[in-house]
Amino acid sequence: MKEILSGNEAIARGAYEAGVKVACAYPGTPSTEILENTVRYKEIDSSWATNEKVALEVGIGASFVGARSLVTMKHVGVNVAADPLFTLSYTGVNGGLVLVCADDPELHSSQDEQDSRNYAKFVKIPMLEPSDSQECLDFTRLAYEISEKYDTPVMLRTTTRISHSKSVVTFGERIDTIKDAKLERNPAKFVMLPGNARGRHYVVEDRTLQLSKDGVSLPINRVEMRGTKMGVITAGISYQHVREALPEASVLKLGMVHPLPFDLIREFASKVDKLYVVEELDPFIEEQVKAIGIPVTGKEIIPICGELTPGRVRKAFGLPENASSTVEKLPGRPPNMCPGCPHRGVFYTLKQLNAYVSGDIGCYTLGFMPPLSAMDTCVCMGASIGMATGAAKVLPPEERKKVVAVIGDSTFLHTGINGLMDMVYNKGAATVIILDNRITAMTGRQENPGSGHTLMNDPTNEVDFELLCKAIGVKNVRTINPLDLDECRTVIAEEMERPETSVIITDKPCVLIKREGVFKPGAPLQVVDDACAGCRACLKIGCPAIEWIPGSGKKGKAHIDPLLCNGCDVCSQLCKFSAIKEAK
Amino acid sequence: MSDKVTNIVLVGVGGQGILLAAEILSETFMLAGFDVKKSEIHGMSQRGGSVVSHVRYGKEVFSPMVPEGDGDILFGFELMESYRYLSLLKPGGTVVVNDLCIAPPSVLIGQEQYPADMALKIQELFPDCLLVDGQNLAIQAGNARAANTVLLGAVSKRLDIEEKYWIEAIEKMVPKKALEVNLKAFQMGRGLK
Ligand SMILES: Cc1ncc(C[n+]2csc(CCOP(=O)(O)OP(=O)(O)O)c2C)c(N)n1
Ligand code: SF4
Ligand code: SF4
Fold first, then answer.
1. Domains identified in chain B, total number
2. Which end of chain B has fewer CB within 10 Å, C or N?
3. What's this model's pTM, rounded to 2 decimal places?
C-alpha cells in the first residue's frame, strides 16, 4: 500500500510493523504526532508520560521484561531524559528500545537549537538519521533489529523538516515473531551498581567499535558515485538539499550517523578529489573525519546556525542564487493567544501590578508579546518556580514582592512540582500561579495527569492541584476565575504581599478543548458604536477578535468580530463607557 | 514524464485551512502518478501566525522545500502574507490569491496600518496574478467555508493534471456532508479566467 505520510506518521507505522508493544512520550514539537499516530494501532499501548524522563523509564521497564518499546521526544526532552539514558547504554536492552529525538534547527518552535547527535556519541549508542518518510518507516524497523542484535538502545534522530514533511511511503506488514513479555531476572546486567557497571563499560566500548566496523557494509550507509571531482558526506535532510543543489556531486549518504563507518569514509575520500561534509548545526561528522586525518571542508562554508535549504547549500558552494523579487517591509504576524484564552486576563493583571514574571513554556509564554508584555524570563520547562525562589532569595524586600512565577498545568506536572517543593522546604517567598487550562495546549492539546483522560481516551484520575500543593506544604492556596479581572487583581495583589510561598490556581479551560462540556463559549460581544469613546482600553489585552478601526479625522473606534469572539467578557470589564455588550 | 519538478507555495494565516489544501494538492499529485513532497511549519499555526507550506511534485523530488526564487505558483489565502512570500516565486511565476485582508496583531491594536494596495503591488511584480473573491464565490456555491476549494479550483486550472485526480482527492479528503458544496466550489474556481 502507498500513502503520503509525514515523517512522524511513518515512524509510528514503522514501530507498528516492528511489533512495538509500548509507546510512551511527552509531547514536544516536532515529535508530538508520533504518539498521536501509534495510538491508532490497538496492538500498541500508547501513553503520555508526565515528562521525558518518565517516558524513557516506562520504555526501559517494558524492554527489560522483553517487549519492544518506543519512546519519543523533542530535542530538549533528551536533556530531561539524559539520566536514565546514560545508564541504559550500559545495561543494554532485552526487547528492542528506540528513542526518537526530533531536533528543531532554525528554532521553529523551541528555545534552543541543540544538535542531539552529540548525545549519541556522549551516551555511546547508535543513531540513525532518515532523509524522508520512507526512510522513517524503514529505519524505525531497522533500529529495532540493531537494538536487539547489539544489545543497545538506538536513537532515531529527525529534524522538523523530516518529522513534518510528507512524502510517498510504501507500507509493510507487522512482524509476527515478537516474543511475549515475561519476567526474566538478570541482575548482573540490569542492576547498575559499580561492580556490575564497571564490567558493562567494556561491553559498551566494544559495541561501539563493532558497530563502526559493521557500519561499512550496512546498506543504509551508501556511496552514490557520480564523478570524482567532488565528494560530499551527508545525512538526514541535508542529503536532499545536496541532491537538489549539487546534482553532479558524488555522495556518501550516512543512514547511521553514530558510530561512523570510518573505513567506508576513508574509501570514499580516496575516490574523490575534494571532500566536503554538508550537515546542519554542529560539525559532528566533520570533526570526526578530521580526527582520523582526512582533510575535509565543512563549517568553513556551511552555516553552523539555522537549518539548511537548497538555496543555502548553493550559496555555500558559491553557486549563483536564483533571481527573486524583494518586497517592502511588512508588519509581522506573530502567533497570538486565542480569543477568550483564559491566560489573557492573568497577564493583563500582572502587567498592571508591575510584577516581575518568572515565566515558563506553554501557550502562556505568548504573554511576553505586546500589548500584554508581561514576562521577564523563560528558560526551560519547569524553571519558573526555582528561578523565582532564587530571585526572591537575593532581592530587597520591596522588590522581592514583585516576583511571580507563572506555569501551566502540564509544565507544573512535568518538572515544576519539584521547584515548588523546594520553595516551600527552603522557605522561599514568592507567588506561584498555576495556569490550569485543563490541557497541554501549546503542542496541540494533549491530555495530561490533570485533565482526567489518557492518550487512549480512557477516563482516569485527575490530579487535584489544590490538594497537591497543600500536601507539599503550601499554606496559602487559592483558586481564581482568570476571566474575572477584579478577582485576579485582588487575589494576586494580596498574595504578592505575603512574605511566604503562595499558590494561585486558575480554573478556566483552553477554548480549543474539543471534549464535550469542558469549554463553553459565552455569547459573542459587540461594541456599541455610539457608546465607544475611542479610549483604546480594550486593546490592551490584545484579543484577536478586537480590531481598532482608525477614524477619518477624528478618533477611531473598536470593533469586535462576532465570528471570532468567544464571549469571555474580559474586554467588557475594561470598558468604562459600557460600550461592549452582548451582540444581538 | 519530464524531469521538471513543479513547485507550489501555499501561504496565509494560521487557522485558514492551508494545511488541508496542501494535503489535497499532494494527494492529487500522488494519484496522478508523481513523486510528491510537502513541507510546512505548523507548530504555532493554530494561533494566527503566518503559515507557509511547500508542495513539490515531479518524477523525482529531493528537498521538500521549494528553493528560493524557484516557485512556479504561489497559492495565497491572504493578501499581505502572499506579498510577504513573493521572493519564493521564480520571475514570471503565477499567483492565485484570495482577495482577503486579515489584520495582524499590531494592526488590530492600532499600532501599525495594514499595508495599502497589496493586490496591486503583487500584480506589479507578477502580472500573471489571479485575484479571487473566494468568500463570495463560496457563498454562491452554498457555504462561505468552501472559499479554499474555490481557490483550489483556480489553481488546478493552472496545472497540467487531469481533472479526475482532483475530484478523487477532494472526495477522499473532504468530509461527506460538505462534499457536494466543495465540488461545486471547485468547479467555480476552475471556471475562473
Ligand atoms: C523538555 C521539554 N519538553 C517539551 C517541550 C514542548 N512544550 C512546550 S510547552 C509544552 C506544554 C505546555 O503545556 P501547559 O504547561 O499546560 O501550558 P499551555 O500550553 O496549556 O498553556 C510543551 C510540551 C519543551 N519545550 N521542553
Ligand atoms: S490554545 Fe488554549 S491555551 Fe493556547 S492560546 Fe488558545 S485558548 Fe489559550
Ligand atoms: S469577549 Fe472580548 S476579550 Fe473575550 S473573546 Fe470576545 S472580544 Fe475577545
1. 1
2. C
3. 0.97
